[in-house]
Amino acid sequence: MGSIAGDYTINILFAGSHVPGSPFRSQISAPFDPTKVTCEGPGLEKGVVGQRSHFRVDCSRAGSAELSIGIASDAGAQAEVCVEDNGDGTYNIGYTALSPGPYSITVLYGGQPVPHFPAKVCVEPWRGRVSCGVFVGSVGCVW
Q1: H/E run at residue 135
Q2: Contacts with 136 (C-beta within 8 Å, 6 or more apart), sequence order
Q3: Per-residue pLDDT at 3
Q4: Is residue 131 part of a domain?
């Protein structure tokens, strides 16, 4: 079996003839190690209702896999999450919580939790002045 990621055809012969179902097809995925993923930034320490909080995830030493981020309050409210791929194995994560209280941040790499996650963060009430605005459409992350 190959050790390089890709699609492979496997021939299994018995007495010079293919066994039933042979050749078989198999896909080998690149190895990844979620223990090598690191996260840092102020959004892992606290958040403020309605304000974008940020943190950075570095997967550059972990191999290739899918990054999944989930942020939800203990009451079940989901934060709005934006993931920006920097193209170098790092990601900028932005989230906006819509209610105060404790939130859990889950970071999975290849479907597996990374070190120190899930993590808890306290989202504080917003204490600024009241204003309103109208937003039409979606243009991606607002940093």
Answers
A1: none
A2: none
A3: 56
A4: no
Cα 49 to Cα 59: distance, rounded to the nearest angstrom:
28
How far is the CA of 72 from the CAs of 57, 67, 77, 106, 129, in angstroms?
A: 18, 17, 5, 9, 26
Whether residue 138 is contained in a domain is answered as no
Could you report the per-residue pLDDT of 56-93, keeping only the tens digit for each?
A: 999 999 999 999 999 999 999 999 999 999 999 999 99
- 96, 90 Cβ separation under 8 angstroms: no
For residues 34 and 65, the answer to whether their CB atoms sit within 8 Å is yes
Classified as helix, coil or strand, 35 is helix
Task: Kindly list the distances between the CA atom of residue 24 and the CA atoms of 10, 30, 79, in Å, as whole numbers in the listed order.
Answer: 5, 20, 44
The residue type at 24: F
Its domain, for residue 92, covers 34-124
